[in-house]
Design goal:
heterodimer; A: 9-stranded mixed beta sheet; 17% strand; B: mainly beta; 2 helices; 8 strands
């Protein structure tokens, strides 16, 4: 199963707040950029996955694939879309699948729609449990109680990722450094999260083209292989009563992904972890086993996730400091790093990457879906 | 002509699940119910199918309305207009003595004295929607006799 398929094209539009471009246009631009990146004509795309709930406008996109599927499992959707693309390719339904995201969040909010941050779900809404910050804060508070994790540890995540964004043009955090004191002085949102622990909705489009490894090699010299992947659902932790200690159900996802890739953690050179809030990469670094349980805070405070640390993490600034593409941000960054296109932020060692996605509860808060993918340059 | 909205409408409008209506109805009578599997006696909240035995033996039974604070957040940012007059407030996850988690407001406790693990008990209050709902208060604050 290792490296059955690869990414041969990627298109990333402008990313930011208030771009004034509608959602389908962001997707269309992203697809055009991905086709140009792969040096392919439009008719090469014979499968289409829209990583959102609504139907796709293929007429507007100027595409004629064998299928167009809309899928949604929150911020895990982008990784799931790539796994689904592999499934469609391996089952003979398509050769070149476009996995596409494009949302104009600011236009939606201007029309009176709710911000992503203001989402509520289920009976806890009546008690004022509104917004993803509040639900993720429940993970953070439990972690603080169990391990002595502090607000300054969370701040270290924010500063680490901002440092990466500072040298990455086109991100929200470009040339805008923050200090730990800035983090500590930022207003409280949902305790223990302050402003700088949280992401902001941004507008932007992304398209990734997935094909067989064989065809990928014929198209370009630097395809990015999907070496392995796995999934795990936090509903299992809900049923066990351990949902707040677990940001995701990474165990089974990790086992399957590394087994498929024939790799161990020591083979991973960077991590691009889903980061709606600062607690998220901190807990995932532990859950994958890069550090012992409870040691995520000190790891970040000691610079462990920085470019010269043991596992550079969210190296483009992540969703916290770069832009929020509901889970594509880590895939984009992994592809840029692996291809050597990360500019001033290029890592010295960049041949393998761990990518995660997370989101969409399954009937009660904090029961998130999760997907892990291992990407690399060598099949 | 329509009078007061019925309880199902209120529960739906609040984001709740009509499956839990027996729970909310019992709150109006001062009782705190839990959903329980008659085979393995495991308690659930919200209404669930038992992960081992399915729906067939699930029934509502009276619970203690007591538990401990498992984790919590203090909401400071008002995402919606209705939150503006309320912040800051505490949303806690209470691990009930019978096992399940229950999200609720923790009241009657100064923010600086909130602590994971503290014992809490349910008190019924009338929500702005008209629904009677449980909120949780500390059972005892050591050295503090001001609690009602």
């Amino acid at each position: 199963m290792r490296a059955a398929c690869a990414i041969v094209g990627m298109g990333v539009t402008a990313q930011g707040i208030g771009l004034g471009i509608e959602s389908r246009e962001l997707r269309a631009q992203a697809v055009d950029l991905a086709l140009a990146d792969a040096r392919l004509e439009r008719d090469a795309i014979d499968g289409y996955i829209h990583t959102y709930l609504d139907r796709e406008d293929l007429r507007y996109m100027g595409l004629s694939p064998n299928f167009s599927v809309s899928m949604m499992t929150g911020g895990a959707t982008p990784v799931f879309s790539i796994l689904s693309a592999i499934g469609m390719i391996v089952s003979g339904q398509a050769e070149m699948v476009a996995c596409v995201y494009g949302q104009a969040q600011s236009a939606r909010v201007a029309r009176g729609g709710q911000t992503i941050g203001g989402y509520g779900y289920g009976y806890p809404t009546l008690y004022g449990l509104v917004g993803a910050a509040a639900t993720h804060a429940l993970h953070a508070r439990r972690h603080m109680h169990l391990y002595g994790t502090t607000s300054r540890h969370l701040g270290a995540v924010a500063v680490t990722q901002r440092n990466y964004a500072c040298v990455r043009p086109g991100t929200l955090g470009y040339d805008k450094p923050i200090t730990l004191e800035d983090h500590q002085a930022s207003p409280m949102i949902a305790d223990p999260f302050r402003r700088y622990d949280c992401t902001r909705d941004t507008d932007g489009g992304v398209a990734v083209l997935v094909t067989t490894a064989e065809r990928a090699r014929s198209l370009r010299s630097d395809p990015v292989y999907i070496l392995g992947a796995g999934t795990g659902h936090n509903i299992a932790h809900w049923h066990r009563g351990t949902v707040y200690e677990n940001h995701d159900n990474i165990g089974p996802a990790k086992e399957r992904a590394f087994s498929q890739a024939g790799m161990t953690l020591a083979d991973i050179q960077m991590a691009q972890l889903y980061d709606p809030f600062t607690i998220s990469p901190l807990m995932q670094i532990e859950a994958y086993g890069f550090v012992a349980e409870g040691q995520g805070g000190p790891f970040y405070a000691d610079g462990g996730a920085a470019a010269d640390g043991p596992i550079p993490t969210n190296t483009g600034g992540g969703q916290l400091s770069a832009y929020y593409t509901t889970g594509f941000t880590g895939i984009i960054e992994a592809v840029l790093q692996l291809r050597g296109q990360a500019g001033a932020g290029q890592l010295r060692r960049a041949e393998t990457a761990l990518v995660s996605g997370h989101g969409m509860n399954a009937g009660v808060q904090n029961t998130w879906a999760h997907a892990t993918a291992i990407l690399g340059m060598h099949a | 002509m329509r009078g007061q909205p019925d309880m199902e409408t209120i529960v739906r409008d609040l984001g709740g699940d009509p499956l839990d209506l027996p729970f909310w109805q019992a709150c109006g009578e001062g009782r705190f119910l839990l959903h329980r599997c008659g085979v393995c006696r495991r308690h659930y909240w919200p209404a669930s199918r038992c992960v081992r035995h399915g729906a067939q033996n699930m029934a509502w039974v009276e619970g203690s309305g007591r538990g401990t604070l498992y984790t919590y957040t203090v909401i400071h940012h008002a995402y919606t207009a209705s939150m503006k007059g309320r912040v800051p407030y505490v949303v806690g996850v209470i691990q009930l003595d019978e096992g399940p988690f229950f999200h609720s407001n923790v009241v009657g406790c100064p923010l600086e004295r909130l602590a994971v693990g503290q014992p809490l008990r349910a008190t019924m209050i009338e929500h702005e929607s008209g629904l009677v709902v449980p909120v949780f208060r500390p059972i005892a604050l050591v050295g503090d006799h001001s609690q009602t």
